């Protein structure tokens, strides 16, 4: 399935955009849009756009996620370097960080997707389903509901972790 | 007039309420029918725990009730696996026992005095009613048709494929596990549809419950990631998928690790690695999506798929590398036997010896599912037509479960729910199309006719439907007939095939009256009454749980087959000569040996028919001392009559089975009714054991292991001496006489 789509899009792209260099579809995917930009510039562009467009509350969530990645990374590093002796403790600490991370990411997705992410999820290919899915997504959750869900998930997560830590 | 009052009831908002009420009533009726159809065994026999494994669960539940939760958790059982013991608390799935314990305590709290045995016996039927409800919810997620859910619930309630494991008294893990399986899938579908943390967390909670209840949770552990993976490959990634899956995985994995028996398996065992891999993959995909929000572009799809393929490749090779180097535990033997049906037979005879691990015979599908099995492909096809996220799930589930059900008989149980869903989808589509009695209104017909004639034919929307009353009535009648036949079949199968407790046997006398054969309990009760409290009983492992549960005596091996060598030791003792077996029995402190013998009654599940498995398992450990070939005649036959091989005739099992059996018959006419052969004239001579008890129909025979001889002779001499007191002189006289004549 993906290969077919792959082939179709490249064939359609080559005749229509003769001016833009499309040597490799893989790495130059974003590059074609910014014509001549190196990977570093793209990254910078992304970062700038991120810093300017993200609302304050979402930034806070992102900071928390970055902190969790740090905590999880530190624990993992400790486990690799100093041994995993209290394995239960390591596991519960690490999975608490990971679990909290994904929960926060979920919360972020639910609270910050105001049309921005729901639109590109309809891939054009699945146009038949796209509008149905879009509708389902739009009838989604209020921020309060999302936050309540988040609390619920976190409570369960930390209950398991404390129970498991020995 | 009735028509108009019906109209009031069935239309508008009051109609909705009526329909809701009707639905609730129908569901309650279905649940009641599901419970009722499982009570055959209680009515025919009595409220008794069935078969083998349930006896252990029952014993563990009693322990839990008596000693409380914490000591149950730390339970070290020294009355099984005699010299070794078993860390029972850490090696069982506690969900079942805890569930019935909680129900018991709630009932006691409500001042309903109830025996724990009755809670255990009726747990499975009660949960089957809940399964029907869960099935209704699951199917309602799949279809907009209101009849589909009700049909699925009805099918699930009475289909024999599920009844086989949930009749009253079969107090086994599957009793609650199937409900949890269906309900977890319902929650998962709900989570994917809504993309909410709450549903994901609920899925994880029920998944954790499922893990605590049944080893089959691995099916969920692999099915959900597969569903997500297929969705990603179809380009259907969405935040909903991310939220529901990551929530489920993070919480569910932690939840599953709370069970001591599972422990660190979710991060060590290969069975669980696919879930972890998909978890990592989803993080990457989500990150890619996140970046894409800032870089809109067509080529991003390419980048995404390439990334997916690359990561899967890396993860897969990493998995193989880790498996090969041994960081991750290798796949378990049962898992291998899922893919290679010959694997178990070659490598692990103990897995192959269990009858429910055998491949399924074709008629079993029809026997267990009746007409659902041919509606099943139609339902799957209809899922392909709609193919939303939840339909993808049905398709994947049905493909996987069909394969597994073909490999192992017991996995028919996991196939049954999806067959019910698919069949209900198909049947409700048929009913919806054929049962609506109204013809198209003239306006819509006219509208269709006056539609722009220039437009392409395919874009026109003609009124299509079945309006002939004849075809409608034919289809409606045949469907009704099939449904009635299905009910009749289910009832028949349940009452005839699945409702036997197998502890108590029933047979019909020539005049049609029922004859109860209660040999097992007779023998176990004898053990309970006549032997010291810590007398060790040796038997083949099938009866270990029953001896522990009913006779309350320590056993050498039981149905929890964690130690192959120990079982092989018993197999060797059973299949060797007495001189070899006796030291083994002495070393293991065996006081009594129990064999099951069906020769008198024609009971085919006896030990001599299982004997070859004992030989094979023993041969797996001691290939030099026990050889399967020795038990077959030169022509490759397994015989017990005059032509039986010497190894067969001298084996302890053979001797114990036929000891004194010939005395029941006129000389030379002893018959074995199971194997349908005549037996040798002479009864085999037992030296080291003495008969202690034989039940009424000779099904259970107990032998006491003799102590060492007081005078230091070996047992054969001692027996010859005891017997020979009268004949000794005669034989001595005979000897010299012969000499003289020559």
UniProtKB/TrEMBL annotation, chain A:
<protein>
    <recommendedName>
        <fullName>Dolichyl-diphosphooligosaccharide--protein glycosyltransferase subunit OST2</fullName>
    </recommendedName>
</protein>
<feature type="region of interest" description="Disordered">
    <location>
        <begin position="1"/>
        <end position="31"/>
    </location>
</feature>
<feature type="compositionally biased region" description="Polar residues">
    <location>
        <begin position="112"/>
        <end position="124"/>
    </location>
</feature>
<feature type="region of interest" description="Disordered">
    <location>
        <begin position="112"/>
        <end position="137"/>
    </location>
</feature>
<comment type="similarity">
    <text>Belongs to the DAD/OST2 family.</text>
</comment>
<keyword id="KW-0256">Endoplasmic reticulum</keyword>
<dbReference type="Pfam" id="PF02109">
    <property type="entry name" value="DAD"/>
</dbReference>
<comment type="subunit">
    <text>Component of the oligosaccharyltransferase (OST) complex.</text>
</comment>
<dbReference type="GO" id="GO:0008250">
    <property type="term" value="C:oligosaccharyltransferase complex"/>
</dbReference>
<dbReference type="InterPro" id="IPR003038">
    <property type="entry name" value="DAD/Ost2"/>
</dbReference>
<keyword id="KW-1133">Transmembrane helix</keyword>
<feature type="transmembrane region" description="Helical">
    <location>
        <begin position="147"/>
        <end position="165"/>
    </location>
</feature>
<keyword id="KW-0812">Transmembrane</keyword>
<feature type="compositionally biased region" description="Basic and acidic residues">
    <location>
        <begin position="128"/>
        <end position="137"/>
    </location>
</feature>
<comment type="pathway">
    <text>Protein modification; protein glycosylation.</text>
</comment>
<comment type="function">
    <text>Subunit of the oligosaccharyl transferase (OST) complex that catalyzes the initial transfer of a defined glycan (Glc(3)Man(9)GlcNAc(2) in eukaryotes) from the lipid carrier dolichol-pyrophosphate to an asparagine residue within an Asn-X-Ser/Thr consensus motif in nascent polypeptide chains, the first step in protein N-glycosylation. N-glycosylation occurs cotranslationally and the complex associates with the Sec61 complex at the channel-forming translocon complex that mediates protein translocation across the endoplasmic reticulum (ER). All subunits are required for a maximal enzyme activity.</text>
</comment>
<feature type="transmembrane region" description="Helical">
    <location>
        <begin position="59"/>
        <end position="83"/>
    </location>
</feature>
<dbReference type="GO" id="GO:0006487">
    <property type="term" value="P:protein N-linked glycosylation"/>
</dbReference>
<keyword id="KW-0472">Membrane</keyword>
<feature type="compositionally biased region" description="Low complexity">
    <location>
        <begin position="8"/>
        <end position="17"/>
    </location>
</feature>
From TrEMBL, chain B:
<feature type="transmembrane region" description="Helical">
    <location>
        <begin position="364"/>
        <end position="384"/>
    </location>
</feature>
<feature type="domain" description="STT3/PglB/AglB core">
    <location>
        <begin position="537"/>
        <end position="586"/>
    </location>
</feature>
<protein>
    <recommendedName>
        <fullName>Dolichyl-diphosphooligosaccharide--protein glycosyltransferase subunit STT3</fullName>
        <ecNumber>2.4.99.18</ecNumber>
    </recommendedName>
</protein>
<keyword id="KW-0256">Endoplasmic reticulum</keyword>
<feature type="transmembrane region" description="Helical">
    <location>
        <begin position="119"/>
        <end position="138"/>
    </location>
</feature>
<comment type="pathway">
    <text>Protein modification; protein glycosylation.</text>
</comment>
<dbReference type="InterPro" id="IPR003674">
    <property type="entry name" value="Oligo_trans_STT3"/>
</dbReference>
<feature type="transmembrane region" description="Helical">
    <location>
        <begin position="415"/>
        <end position="437"/>
    </location>
</feature>
<keyword id="KW-0460">Magnesium</keyword>
<feature type="transmembrane region" description="Helical">
    <location>
        <begin position="175"/>
        <end position="191"/>
    </location>
</feature>
<dbReference type="GO" id="GO:0004579">
    <property type="term" value="F:dolichyl-diphosphooligosaccharide-protein glycotransferase activity"/>
</dbReference>
<dbReference type="GO" id="GO:0046872">
    <property type="term" value="F:metal ion binding"/>
</dbReference>
<keyword id="KW-0812">Transmembrane</keyword>
<feature type="transmembrane region" description="Helical">
    <location>
        <begin position="273"/>
        <end position="291"/>
    </location>
</feature>
<feature type="transmembrane region" description="Helical">
    <location>
        <begin position="21"/>
        <end position="43"/>
    </location>
</feature>
<feature type="transmembrane region" description="Helical">
    <location>
        <begin position="391"/>
        <end position="409"/>
    </location>
</feature>
<keyword id="KW-0479">Metal-binding</keyword>
<keyword id="KW-0328">Glycosyltransferase</keyword>
<keyword id="KW-0472">Membrane</keyword>
<feature type="transmembrane region" description="Helical">
    <location>
        <begin position="144"/>
        <end position="163"/>
    </location>
</feature>
<feature type="transmembrane region" description="Helical">
    <location>
        <begin position="211"/>
        <end position="234"/>
    </location>
</feature>
<comment type="function">
    <text>Catalytic subunit of the oligosaccharyl transferase (OST) complex that catalyzes the initial transfer of a defined glycan (Glc(3)Man(9)GlcNAc(2) in eukaryotes) from the lipid carrier dolichol-pyrophosphate to an asparagine residue within an Asn-X-Ser/Thr consensus motif in nascent polypeptide chains, the first step in protein N-glycosylation. N-glycosylation occurs cotranslationally and the complex associates with the Sec61 complex at the channel-forming translocon complex that mediates protein translocation across the endoplasmic reticulum (ER).</text>
</comment>
